[in-house]
Amino acid sequence: MANIVELKVNLHCDECIRKILKAIKKIEDIETYDVDTQLNKVIVTGNVTEEQVIRVLQKVRKAAVKWDEGNQTLFTN
Questions:
Q1: What pLDDT was estimated at residue 2?
Q2: Helical (H) or strand (E) element with 44
Q3: ∠58-60-61 over CA atoms, to 5°?
Q4: Residue among 3, 24, 8 nearest 67 (CA)
Q5: Local structure of residue 74 (DSSP, 8 states)
């Protein structure tokens, strides 16, 4: 069964979004991915864990935290 990984990531410019999407596409066993620029949210489904996705995003210098309805405020990178 596919996991759904939801993370909060600061998506402040098109270049950041391109880097994030490029990094996510390289993860093995993903089924779908989506970026919500209004919510600063990245959603990945597939045979992946939060830790895997966070590690990939850290490699492109993007901080990511587990999505929580309570963490709606932006954080700085």
A1: 87
A2: strand 41-46
A3: 60
A4: 8
A5: -
